[in-house]
From TrEMBL:
<dbReference type="InterPro" id="IPR001478">
    <property type="entry name" value="PDZ"/>
</dbReference>
<keyword id="KW-1133">Transmembrane helix</keyword>
<dbReference type="Pfam" id="PF13365">
    <property type="entry name" value="Trypsin_2"/>
</dbReference>
<keyword id="KW-0472">Membrane</keyword>
<protein>
    <submittedName>
        <fullName>Do family serine endopeptidase</fullName>
    </submittedName>
</protein>
<keyword id="KW-0378">Hydrolase</keyword>
<feature type="transmembrane region" description="Helical">
    <location>
        <begin position="6"/>
        <end position="28"/>
    </location>
</feature>
<dbReference type="InterPro" id="IPR009003">
    <property type="entry name" value="Peptidase_S1_PA"/>
</dbReference>
<dbReference type="InterPro" id="IPR036034">
    <property type="entry name" value="PDZ_sf"/>
</dbReference>
<keyword id="KW-0645">Protease</keyword>
<keyword id="KW-0720">Serine protease</keyword>
<keyword id="KW-0812">Transmembrane</keyword>
<comment type="similarity">
    <text>Belongs to the peptidase S1C family.</text>
</comment>
<feature type="domain" description="PDZ">
    <location>
        <begin position="288"/>
        <end position="353"/>
    </location>
</feature>
<dbReference type="Pfam" id="PF13180">
    <property type="entry name" value="PDZ_2"/>
</dbReference>
<dbReference type="InterPro" id="IPR001940">
    <property type="entry name" value="Peptidase_S1C"/>
</dbReference>
Length: 397
């Protein structure tokens, strides 16, 4: 009997010991696992390294440092100095820089630029080069180079520089614009705050055409000195040249920032390399939206009967479509092609026209001499006419 009790006692505590061991194995498996082989250990460490370098947390990338390290060297700082003016001249009104003990002054300005090819061509804003006599480009490495002005375009505020050095760091201008509203973007440049180069982050807020180029609006902050810098996407691809921003009445808080679309800049650069400036096509007419009947009637001095007739023509069109021709330049392309006031232009090269901006956008990248097909309504009848574009002037900085 005592033997059976002794055996039962041993079995009882043996089972308790096995249970405790099982708990340790379940909750602390690494304490009981076999040592990894050298190959397994290397693979394990590689997985940890890859996970750490990806900088991804909960599906979101948390760092773009590697991309910016490759991209930022293509963005440069630009220092501009004018020739020396006498103090009596209008150029000295602001007295931005006056050599001591002299009766002269020089205008200083600065900005940013983007190297676009390995030959040393640099894109910046035209206003950065205003009154420029000497232009110095500073690379991210700190090296300073004298730059020559190839040409520029005041209307789009784009200019082209050239330095006599080949560089492996450049951001090519794309042929097409694949960016979309909501895309993550980074603005790289040198603001006038004592920093050599800064990066701000935002998204694309809007895209639109105005004046002579397509623009990208972003909430990535820009400061004076960022002009001419790079706007890149999350892959480090150049999508725009930062151009301007709007301020509050106190000149402090930034509300909106803009960049010229990089594929538009490509076209401008091609024109500057070819002509030293941009040659733009010209239709030789002005017009107003079909929905602005009151302004059209006032501008053309229409009688009540003429206004009613124009209204009936507009009613034949889809709402808002079409631009009413309000003036035709004498001997201009439109007049030579037979267009007249009160014609309603509905399409140019098969692109629907809803306002004067659409009309400009349809020909913005076409040179003088190019032919466009203009579809329009006259007296309720559809017409189509080929117009050979004239030349619209553009001034170099």
């Amino acid at each position: 009997m005592k033997l059976l009790q002794f055996i039962g006692f041993i079995i009882k505590y043996l089972l308790i010991g096995l249970g405790i061991a099982a708990l340790f194995i379940v909750f602390l498996p690494e304490k009981f696992s076999k040592d990894k082989s050298p190959a397994e250990h290397t693979a394990y460490q590689s997985q940890l390294t890859q996970k750490a370098s990806s900088k991804v947390l909960n599906g979101l990338k948390t760092s773009y440092a590697d991309m910016l390290a490759e991209t930022a060297p293509a963005v440069v700082s630009i220092k501009v100095r004018s020739k020396v003016f006498s103090l009596e001249s209008g150029a000295c009104a602001d007295l931005e820089a006056r050599p001591p003990d002299t009766n002269a002054c020089a205008v200083l300005s600065d900005g940013s630029g983007v190297i676009i090819d390995k030959q040393g061509h640099i894109v910046t804003n035209a206003h950065v080069l205003d009154k420029a006599d000497t232009v110095i480009v500073e690379l991210k490495s700190g090296a300073q180079l004298k730059a020559n002005i190839v040409g520029g375009d005041i209307e789009s505020d784009i200019a082209l520089l050239k330095v006599d050095v080949e560089t492996p760091h450049f951001l090519p201008l794309p042929e097409n614009d694949q960016s979309r509203v909501g895309d993550l973007v980074f603005a790289i440049g040198t603001p006038n705050l004592g920093f050599h180069q800064t990066v701000t982050q935002g998204i694309i807020s809007a895209k639109f055409f105005t004046r002579v180029a397509h623009y990208i609006q972003t909430d990535a902050a820009l400061r004076p000195g960022n002009s001419g810098g790079a706007l890149v996407n999350a892959y480090g691809e150049l999508i725009g040249i930062t151009s301007l921003s709007t301020l509050s009445n106190q000149g402090e808080k930034l509300y909106q920032s803009y960049a010229v679309s990089a594929n538009n800049v490509r076209h401008i650069v091609e024109q500057i390399n070819k002509h030293g400036q941009v040659h733009r096509g010209w239709l030789g007419l002005s017009g107003d939206m079909t929905i602005n009947l009151n302004s059209i009637s006032y501008e053309l001095g229409l009688t009540a009967e003429q206004r009613q007739e124009l209204q009936s023509r507009i009613n034949q069109l889809p709402f808002g479509k079409g631009v009413v021709v309000t003036a035709v330049a004498a001997q201009g392309p439109a007049e030579q092609a037979g267009l007249k006031p009160l014609d309603i232009i509905t399409e140019v090269n098969n692109k629907p026209i809803y306002n004067a901006v659409d009309l400009t956008s349809a020909i913005w990248n076409l040179e003088p001499g190019a032919e466009v097909t203009v579809n329009y309504m006259r007296d309720g009848t559809k017409h189509s006419q080929t117009v050979t574009l004239g030349k619209r002037g553009s001034v170099s900085p």
